[in-house]
Please model this.
Amino acid sequence: MTGRLRRLVEPLYERYIALQCRSIPRHIAIIQDGNRRYARELGADTSVGHRAGADTTERLLGWACDLGVEHITLYSFSTENFHRDASELEELFALFREKFLAIVSDERVHRYGIRVRMVGDRSLLPPDLLEAIETAEASTAGYSRFHLNIALAYGGRNEIVNAARRILADAAAGRVSADEITPALVEESLAEGGDLPPVDLIIRTGNECRTSNFLPWQANGNECAVYFCAPYWPQFRKIDLLRAIRVYRQRAGST
Model:
């Protein structure tokens, strides 16, 4: 399809899919995969891919708010990602810091009323990044219309293990009995993502068909829909988001 034809057809196709998305998930979690492969195929430095991915994230936020998605959780940096080269980690942390600080003056964030917060192990992050995160969180703490959760230094299994440790400590101290250990108590003990609502839809880009330890309690326990798609994260379009929501609607309609 030529570029000109694509520009003519895509808006029509987008509207066609949108008509099939009458049920909008409350909480969408996205595994943003493919930034590095995107840069590699361009013959560019990895930082180019990460910045292009950050641009896609900003576009996604507008699409999600316009559609009425109340919660977006982005898997931006896992605990396993700490094994990457020191130079890439430095670039990533600088980019995260820049984007969190930009939230303070981003008129779209304040116009939509988006509460921004980090989900993950804060003790693993450098102090200057943590300071930027806390600044962004403080500047949006009064909002409740939409929620953007950025998963940094996050690992789902670690989260559950840490919750189990907290519950065992409470049990040993006599603060909780065995009969009181319920799914609700476990959720309360999930420090990194304990107050996130159940995930309705997981999206993973980059042609990878796995969920990579992302929100296992919030997603698997809710039997959420999963949508895997081929585009790298920097290439993700509104059409791809609508296709994912269509999968959610089809699954919701069959239950």
About this structure: The chain has two domains: 27-155+198-254, 156-191.
